[in-house]
Amino acid sequence: MLVAIGVPDVESLFDEIPKELLIKDLDGIPDALGEMEISRLMRARAAEDSGPSCFIGAGAYEHHIPAVVWDIATRGEFYSAYTPYQAEASQGTLQTIYEYQSMIASLTGLDASNASLYDGASALAEAALMAVRANRGTKSRRILLAAGVNGTYRKVAAAIAGSQGLTFDRLPLHTGTGTSDFSSLRDGSDAPVAVVIQQPGFFGTLESIHEITDLAHSQGALVIAVVNPTSLAILEAPGCWGEQGADIACGEGQPLGVPLSSGGPYFGFMACKNALIRQMPGRIVGRTTDLDGNPGFTLTLQAREQHIRRSKATSNICTNQGLMVTAATIYLSLLGQEGLARVASTSCRRTEELVEMLCAIDGVDHLFGGPHFHECGLRLDRPAGPVLDALAARGILGGIDLSGTNPELGNALLVCATETKTKADLEAYRDALRDIMS
Amino acid sequence: MSELPGDLRFTGEHEWLRKEEDGSVTIGITDHAQSALGDLVFVELPETGQELEAGGEMAVVESVKAASDVYAPVSGTVLEVNSALADDPEKINADPYGEGWIVRMQPSDDDMGDTMDPDAYQELLDDLES
Amino acid sequence: MHEPLIFEKSRRGRRAYAQAPAERAECTIPAEFLRDEPPMLPEASELQVVRHFTRLSQQNFSIDTHFYPLGSCTMKYNPRACNLLAMLPGFASRHPLGPDRYGQGFLACMHELQEMLKAVTGMKAVSLTPMAGAQGELTGVAMIRAYHVARGEPHRLEVIVPDAAHGTNPATATMCGCVVRELPTGSDGDIDLDALRRAVGPNTAGIMLTNPSTLGVFERNITEVAAIVHAAGGLLYYDGANLNAILGKVRPGDMEFDVIHMNLHKTFSTPHGGGGPGSGAVGVGIRLMPFLPIPIVGKREGKGDPEYFWLSEEHMPQSIGRLSGFMGNAGVLLRAYVYMRMLGRDGMRRVAEFATLNANYLMARLEQAGFELAYPGRRASHEFIVTLKRQAKSLNLTAMDVAKALLDHGFHAPTTYFPLLVPECLLIEPTETETREMMDRFADAMIAIVREAETDIRRLKGAPYTMPVRRLDDVKAARNLDLAWKP
């Protein structure tokens, strides 16, 4: 090969690089490990982290993932395929995404979905930017968040969209119900460009989505719904909120067949009404026909994206979470609406049962009244931190300490029980907590 | 390459203008522009009544391979937009100087700005070719 | 053969029984919160689902099945062990908000990955959180802005971007509230230094550079470029898309870059997955350390084993903040970690050597076969550009035609029409994991395609013929939007 190129050695190929920049050795990189050695190391480390029974929700949820999902998603043809820019060589990926888009559109009750964004938090940032582009009727750059919007999502939205002049305000939390006090929305002063409603809220509580949606629209604001996809099997679709429906829906897709995996990779989904489609960031797949008139799929509306529009693009986003979307599409295909509704309702029921059991212990009480989805706040008679530590030492991750995110709520924690928890799991938690609290 | 209509003025951004009887100005993009863009799939139009500044963004024409800004060649107010383009953006490809018109506006003054006559525009096109 | 949609295979009441709870539980949520109409999801058996998606996968080209010389994408082999080990149950089932104490195995991997990325790039600190290259870019530009604001120079809003840059660069600059100043590239592929001197000034925030550049050549004047920009008070951002060309040979830190983003899904072989997930870890020099996005893994040395923990807002008050709901694409980072451990010190140097050798070999073969190189006098980095402008004029053979014809020869096309500077271009990157025989076969296919164009261009224009679909009508796709199935 060197002969064909016409050089004496490989080093000559680097002769355009200034000599003083070439390094001699890589300190700080250990010697290579063979597959056997690295397997041993990783198995030991994974084992270190194994074991505890998990009752944490707060934006990432443990659900049973059918064996088929990752067996197929990690087939080389899906796993090592590139972005489907050459459509004729990527029909597998493209059709999968089209089917995914169809499912998300239906779950959210909206007209069109994109091929996904990085995660739920960044999806909200993109939705906010999209609302500003789409809402020509106002100069406001103020985004109003309902009280139940995940606090981390707000931070991420500010980090990503803040430099484009967007501000993020919050409605106050009604401490009895754990939902938004939206009286300030009624008076119409300083109308925001968009109102964001999370359903279920961070604490698992349920907002008056119809009323808030109509109020927001009456103020000339767009409505962004942040929703849990499992819950959409039974909860009202954003497209049916209020008289006109929410304008944009987004959220974290992880519950749909993606493992918890320490926080990623997940995927953010986004859907919108027809009128807003051209403002939607990210890739979109469309169905069309080929030269013979046969159906086929291709990326469409690419003129809005970074590789064409460059500095005027809807976003700088280049990736979609292709592999996770493939997994989610397979998951939803296996479960169907009935299966997903069973996962949703069973998860609600487990949480209800757990909360009932735990509130029977002295010093433990409901944090909020009203209906919840599969997550619930508990009030304790002592700080939650040490209680959670003690539970963890017994192999139970009991939830999250709310004093970090919401100090105004006092000694409180947030628990979640999904369909993965058995009666024995719930009893183990109750027994351990009773022991610790006495 | 079609003939350049003699009653139009042109800009360096490949737009054409026609001064109407009532003093308004109709604006579109030239045959060269539509050909470079390819089949148009969407046109984003301004609102009637909107104030435009010379050199500012007036419309966006989108094809499969590009989304191009169309700039207002003169300052003024939008009187009418060609809403037929919403369903048939390909009118711009088929008839860029006629049915493919984009915006009609009331200029704020009589100055036709940095526009050129058909011969000068043809020269510009010839230069681009070589 | 068109595969019907999963919806079209559905039948009322059918589903995979074993994978959901046996019953619907009683739901006490009041009716006003519930939906009236169930969502429209597929109703298919487990076997139907398995067949459907297996058959769909068989319609894809992938690295596992085809040579994929996509320039700027680094389509190298994704080792299977990376996937297996990243998905071990102990890692897969860990909740991101679980206590650090019960995640030491995972955190150890993350910390070591941070350290290895620092070593290979020559940077002082690393954050693993950006979830893709574009997010890494956003991070870089946002940190540069934060730096200038912290120093009382908020007017520094101009970001210089070469005209050959990847589209994400200017898009990112705009997203961060900056203004783009485009810089022309010289005919030899290097940046025009005089134009750069004229472009910098008191409003310069920084410059975004890829090196080797998107033109496939090393920026020979990089030291001078860095000096000019720094002297004007701006910072240097390195787009690490082409890191594969210099891994273990040159370090961006030594080139005086202040911030770099790495594409772990390119250089460090994490899977492309049909479009993602990626990972855009960032490294910084001293100036930008306080601004890194959180969380970052910290390490406490103690009496026994070291203890790993997350650094957050309280530890890093000047951080530009969080870019993801949790800590980024953890599973992708684990795959990159395994890959780097398997390469080791010597392996990493061999990556750049073989990637460069392969690119230069394929470039020589194509040049000898009569193809025109965009930068004939230059060495290829890990990729190079062929321009078909001559063939486009004489034979009406475009880069698009060649791309489609290559599919019929069993090769995925190279990157086409990028960078925008070079007309009718193919940006070709073989990567280090391909054999000489494969590259020879590719060169032969390219030669055969031109020969076919000389005799029967009309037939060629209709390629591909052997794919599941013929060329697709993308004008129709954009005009008559069909983005979701309706019953």
> What's the count of strands of chain B?
9
Report the C-alpha radius of gyration of chain B, rounded: 14 Å
Order of helices and strands of chain B: EEEHEEEEEHEH
Oligomer: heterotrimer
CATH topology of the largest domain in chain C: Aspartate Aminotransferase, domain 2
Would you tell me which CATH topology of chain B applies? OB fold (Dihydrolipoamide Acetyltransferase, E2P)
- Number of helices, where a helix is a run of at least 4 consecutive DSSP H or I residues of chain B: 3
Q: Nearest-angstrom radius of gyration of chain C?
A: 25 Å
The rounded distance between the terminal residues' Cα atoms of chain B is 15 Å
Order of helices and strands of chain C: HHHHEHEHEHEHEEEEEHEEHHEEHH
**CATH class category of chain B:** Mainly Beta
Structural class by secondary-structure content of chain B:
alpha+beta
Runs of chain B in which pLDDT lies below 50 for 5 or more consecutive residues are none
Rough outline of chain B: globular
Description:
The complex is a heterotrimer of chains A (438), B (130) and C (487). In chain A, α5 runs parallel beside α11. The longest helix of chain A has 38 residues, at 322-359. Chain A has two domains: 53-64 and 337-437, Aspartate Aminotransferase, domain 1 (Alpha-Beta Complex), CATH 3.90.1150.10; 67-330, Type I PLP-dependent aspartate aminotransferase-like (Major domain) (Aspartate Aminotransferase, domain 2, 3-Layer(aba) Sandwich), CATH 3.40.640.10. In chain A, β7 (194-199), α9 and β8 form a beta-alpha-beta unit. In chain A, 35% of the residues lie in helices and 15% in strands. Chain A has 13 helices and 17 strands. The model of chain A has no long low-confidence stretch (mean pLDDT 94). With 438 residues, chain A is an alpha/beta fold. Chain B is α+β, with helices and mostly antiparallel strands and 130 residues long. Chain B has one domain: OB fold (Dihydrolipoamide Acetyltransferase, E2P) (Beta Barrel). In chain B, 18% of the residues lie in helices and 32% in strands. Chain B has helices spanning 31-37, 91-94, 118-129; strands spanning 9-10, 15-19, 25-29, 40-44, 51-52, 57-63, 67-71, 76-81, 103-107. In chain B, the strands form two sheets. Chain B has a six-stranded antiparallel beta sheet. A three-stranded antiparallel beta sheet of chain B has the order 4-6-7, with no helix packed on it. In chain B, β1 (9-10) and β2 form a beta hairpin. With 487 residues, chain C is α/β, with parallel strands linked by helices. Chain C contains 13 helices and 13 strands. In chain C, a hairpin with an 8-residue loop joins β12 and β13 (425-428). Chain C folds into two domains: 81-341, Aspartate Aminotransferase, domain 2, CATH 3.40.640.10; 349-461, Aspartate Aminotransferase, domain 1 (Alpha-Beta Complex), CATH 3.90.1150.10. In chain C, 35% of the residues lie in helices and 11% in strands. Classes of the chains: A alpha/beta (438), B alpha+beta (130), C alpha/beta (487).
